[in-house]
Amino acid sequence: MGDPASRVAVVGSGDSVVDHAERAVRTAGGRLVDPAAADAVVALGDEAVRDALLASAPSDRRVRPASSRGDSPVPCRVDAPVLPVRAGRHAVDPASLDDAIRGLLDGNARRVAHPILAVGGDDEPLRRAVLDVGFVTDEPARISEYAVDLAADREAAFRADGVVVATPMGSDGYAAAAGGPLLEAGGGLSVVPIAPFTTRHDAWVVRDGVGISVRRDAETVSIVVDGDRRGAVTPGRPIRIEVTDRVETLRLSPSFPVDAER
């Protein structure tokens, strides 16, 4: 059992979805507030989950309030744990939102740490990720060569269409489709080649970070952060992906049948 929440902020896009969640909070006896004053933040959908978790990191506690419906230019601080509502692991199934909000207000949610990734290199701008970071060739089914620094004295090199690094929350997405493991909370980061040019398919789990380099420039390789392309990777210049913060999410207790732990 966790501490009951009474002041709840709802963030997300789509007026009907946000309105439904806000009605559920009021029906369950909760009070709607902005994120800066909340005991818990209910984040609806991938984009809202990503923004809320990034905003709750110590380096940048900001997110737009739901009352703005995405139009306000002034983000709010987020100091409360986030209840992620999305399809996938380590989140509440959207179909169970009403039950989840009742459980949250009744104290049936516990706090679970989630990693925030910093992504960058010596000559690359710093980016942050919640779900995954991918390196993919711009042309479909074209192979490049990658090197992965798994530890100070351990490197793996392979030819593949790409490679993806995923957090536990992102491990059931692109990484799982490429054959990677499903990670439990606190289970590190998965590193998974995408369509490797070999009969042996390796994937790795690292604790806090990894370095990735593109070994050749025959094909243009883009970096994709939480599903958004963020430019091309310079061959031979390593990109470092590492845990820079850990933020608090909320998960319903095992006896409460709404957690989408699949």
TrEMBL record:
GO molecular function: NAD+ kinase activity
GO biological process: NAD+ metabolic process
Region listing for Disordered, in residue ranges: 58-77
UniProt-listed Gene3D superfamilies: Probable inorganic polyphosphate/atp-NAD kinase, domain 2 (2.60.200.30)
Protein name listed in UniProt: ATP-NAD kinase
Taxonomic lineage: Archaea, Methanobacteriati, Methanobacteriota, Stenosarchaea group, Halobacteria
